[in-house]
Design brief:
- The chain is mostly helical.
- The chain has 23 helices and no strands.
- It is elongated.
- Helix 4 packs parallel to helix 9 and helix 8 packs across helix 9.
- The longest helix is centred in the first third of the chain and has 38 residues.
- The N and C termini lie far apart (68 Å).
Length: 571
């Protein structure tokens, strides 16, 4: 029992080390890895090379699969290119298994010691996260030594040898067991290294080990499919297509295990080399041999898993919040940002339609736009819930700031949608149903404010996306201009009332409320600039002039007059 516990502990440590390396690399280099993948999609061969590099860093073809699937789900990558990336990802995992199979026992204590020093001294910084990666690498090497040490006494028993003998009597059973182990361990790399250690200790015959290796490769594909089971169809197409390639590879290579043992294995120094090089050869064969079939497999998968066709006039619900991206914080933050822009698109549609309602007195359009506010609210709730599922401890300083910016942006867009809904109700009740109309001058003022709102909303979306400080400053300048225009137009409206303009008298209440609501909408839109300017250190702490502060009375009342407190949206 003691030896069994030691083996289970060694396996758990190996899996945990792999997890530390994967999450650490994604936290430090996640954004750069995404850029590498996005820029290498010119053809399927460069895509495959990028897959090799990224997977070698993150130590997991499953992680690369989830990252690539998310790109497809966001429309940034075609299914054919994504499958080409996965051909390289499998080779990357195999290369790392060869590297770890070399005797690097001397390196394990050095990596663990260096990693712990970096992690404890600078835990929340990039060097601290690099230290976490070093700890993971050291634990993987240490775990491999523990596996070798614990398997020899455990598998000397007659009962265990009988169990292993029953597995070795059926290649299909070997593949099934290997696949199950890869799914349970969440890492085909860890299982391949475990199989290599067991083969070296003569715990399992080499032919059984090679069958288990084929199963581990198949299991990594099954794992990705299970992980994305609840994702969008575009995401599932990538993992299903990758599983098709793995299944084809297993079916092609399995009959030739005997040839490998007869002609290749005698030229290799030991069983460990036989296992990891067989794993590498398998992935190179299916990657190079099948890369020309990526287009065919993509069409096949699209036929089996077709994209759902949206009904005419239907509003698209959350489309970028990929659950499989939550394990990669930088990628999940990107998904949430794209969904926030989708929410802003809905708000822009409402804002543009609001002017058409005023011009054409279209009650049906007003009703449709008010229903659109429900979609804006649903997107806000979905984005907020999605962001809360991202582990905040895994976020760096920049990602944490971006997390806050997204929350702030979606809150403002949701409030803009609510204001537009109330404006539409007022237009219906006070203008359309009473058959009233604005004066020509009044309508021109509203159109001028509306045009500025549209421009400012689009500028705010650009500021949110790019974080450009100059554009953020321009947005705040537009806020001041809009406020001045609102005051000027309120004054001119009062002038028309004094001139006894009938249309102005009939719509006076609606007109004053409308331009005030437009100013509130503009304040919410322009507030997108505050986090950007604050991060850049160019936001003034207060708008109060020094002279006013110097001449203020020394004793201030404990509770200020409500009229003196500026509106939250007009900061």
């Amino acid at each position: 029992m003691k030896h069994l516990l030691n083996l289970l502990a060694a396996i758990a440590l190996l899996v945990w080390g792999t997890q530390l390396v994967r999450t650490g690399v994604l936290r430090v280099f996640g954004a750069n890895l995404r850029k590498i993948l996005a820029r290498s999609m010119g053809n399927r061969f460069t895509a495959a090379l990028s897959g090799i590099g990224v997977t070698a860093l993150v130590q997991s073809s499953t992680a690369t699969s989830l990252m690539t699937s998310s790109f497809v789900g966001q429309g940034l990558l075609s299914l054919t290119s994504a499958l080409a990336v996965m051909r390289g990802a499998d080779v990357g995992t195999a290369v790392m298994s060869v590297l770890f199979s070399v005797d690097l026992s001397w390196l394990s204590p050095l990596l663990i010691f260096s990693g712990v020093v970096l992690f404890l001294s600078r835990q929340s910084s990039t060097p601290g996260r690099v230290g976490g990666v070093l700890i993971g690498l050291g634990l993987m090497l240490l775990a491999l030594q523990m596996v070798v040490g614990s398997t020899e006494p455990l598998f000397e028993s007659d009962a265990m040898r009988a169990v292993l003998g029953s597995i070795g009597s059926d290649l299909l059973l070997e593949i099934t067991v290997g696949a199950a182990l890869a799914v349970i361990a969440y890492s085909s790399l860890a299982i391949v290294l475990l199989i290599a250690a067991m083969a070296t200790s003569t715990v399992v015959p080499l032919d059984v080990g090679l069958g288990l290796v084929l199963g581990a490769n198949l299991g990594s594909g099954v794992l990705a499919v299970l992980t994305t089971a609840k994702s969008a169809v575009e995401v599932r197409q990538v993992t299903v297509g990758n599983l098709v390639f793995k299944a084809m590879g297993v079916a092609l290579v399995a009959p030739f295990i005997g040839l490998w043992l007869q002609h290749v294995q005698p030229r290799l120094p030991d069983s460990t080399s036989g296992v990891v090089l067989f794993h590498l050869a398998f992935n190179i064969v299916i990657s190079v041999g099948f890369i020309g079939l990526t287009g065919f497999v993509a069409r096949l998968v699209e036929r089996v898993l077709p994209k759902a066709k949206a009904a005419p006039g239907a509003v698209r619900r959350p489309q970028h919040l990929d659950p499989s991206a939550l394990s990669t914080p930088s990628l999940a933050i990107s998904c949430a940002a794209r969904e926030a822009l989708h929410q802003a698109d809905m708000v822009e549609t409402m804002l543009i339609g609001m002017l058409d309602v005023m011009r054409k007195n279209d009650l049906q359009l007003a009703e449709n736009l008010r229903k659109l506010d429900d979609t804006v609210d649903e997107l806000y709730s979905a984005i907020k819930y999605y962001l809360t599922k991202i582990p905040t401890g895994a976020l760096g300083e920049e990602e944490s700031r971006r997390w806050t910016d997204i929350i702030s942006f979606t809150i403002n867009m949701e409030q803009v949608g609510d204001i537009i809904e109330r404006v539409l109700i007022d237009i219906e009740e006070k203008k359309i149903k009473k058959a009233r109309s604005f004066s020509q001058a009044g309508m021109k003022e509203i159109e001028e404010l509306h045009a500025r709102l549209i421009d400012n909303l689009r500028l705010a979306m650009s500021v949110f996306l790019n974080g450009n400080v100059r554009d953020a400053q321009k947005l705040l300048q537009e806020k001041a201009r809009f406020r001045d225009l609102e005051r000027a137009y309120a004054t001119t409206h009062l002038g028309r009332l004094s001139e006894q303009t009938v249309q102005s008298i009939e719509t006076s209440s609606l007109h004053i409320d409308l331009i005030s609501d437009l100013k509130r909408i503009n304040s919410h839109i322009c507030s997108v600039a505050y986090p950007i300017l604050d991060s850049a250190g160019v936001l003034a702490p207060s708008r109060l002039r020094e002279k006013v502060a110097d001449t203020a009375p020394a004793a201030m009342p404990p509770v200020p007059d409500a009229a003196a407190v500026p509106d939250r949206a007009d900061r």
